[in-house]
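README, section 4: Worked example with a bound small molecule

Sections 1 through 3 covered apo chains. Here we extend the same pipeline to holo records, where the ligand is supplied as SMILES alongside the sequence. The molecule in this example is zinc ion. Nothing else about the input changes; the structure line simply encodes the ligand pose together with the chain.
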Amino acid sequence: MKLTILGCHSATPRTNTNPTSQVLEIKNHMFLIDCGEGTQVELRRNRVKFSRIKHIFISHLHGDHYFGLIGLVNTFSLLTRETELHIYGPEGLKEVILLQMKLSGGWTKYPLVFHELSSKVSELIFEDDKVEVYTIPLKHRIYTNGFLFKEKKNERKLDINLVYEANIDTAYFRKLKQGYDVVNEDGVLIANEKVTKDPILAKSYAYCSDTVYNEEMIPIIKDATVLYHESTFLDKNESLCIPTKHSTAKHAATIAKKANVETLILGHYSTRYSGYNEFKAEAKTIFDNVLLAKDGKTFNFD
Ligand SMILES: [Zn+2]
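The generated complex, written as structure tokens:
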């Protein structure tokens, strides 16, 4: 699982800071999460192949999270893309994008599929044989969802020498990987754990931006491998959290602790601050394993 931060700042694009967008590589998928202004430039800068992006997840319709979307959709067209593009986002997103396309006199040459979201409870919005994606309802000034990307349980690993020693027919390998005991060529029942190893633990990534402190997300993100939680403000500006419906680094750390996640990544910094070490220091007073998002930074979680 690999996460590349294309932008991790709130509000406006500036010379050295980009609004929100990130790419999550998980089980051969390249999921684009939010698409602030300038995202396509950052995708190029970070050498992300456009053709690998087949799913885009938009948290909410504040400009710093999706103003780059129409540009990207249009560029895909100019690059003669043919593969489907799926966009998941709040109701209204389809209308905005289609109106811009209509008034510019052109439609995409590739299939553009919208999956509009309006539920206030967590729902499964994408699934294949390896990955599931759920919404995480957040509390912000407008309808907002975070997203939980979850690897499905990996299969057990065969210890091939032991399997052959146990005289098991290859027809049973599939069953062994699924965790079943099997009968060998001599009619003896072989316990699964004698010839297989534990699978690699399935990983998960919870993306939570933008939101005010919200304990209702805890059961959904419980035990996640990585939590990205917005931390727009430092403690000294906590009074801004309620009117703007944002969080502080301490709020993010409290959620990380209560949800028992392994790693917390902070981001969505207000552009009023020039450095971010204080965010980390404040979060670390509550939760130990804290990382700072930074535009252009890649995190590997293997
Ligand atoms: Zn917002």
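What to look for in the output: The pocket of zinc ion is lined by residues 60, 62, 140, 210 (CB under 6 Å). Residues 62 and 107 are 24 Å apart (CA to CA).

Section 5 describes how to batch many such records.
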